[in-house]
Amino acid sequence: MGDAGTREEALVAMMVAYQGGDASAFEALYREMAGAVRGYLRSLARDATRAEDLLQETFLQLHRVRHTFDPGRPLKPWVYAIAHNVFLMQRRAMTRRGRHETIAEEELPELPIPAEVESLADRDRVRRALARLPADRREAVVLHHVLGFSFNEVGAVQDVSPGAAKVRAHRGMVELRAILRGEAS
Question: What's the pTM?
Answer without folding.
Answer: 0.69
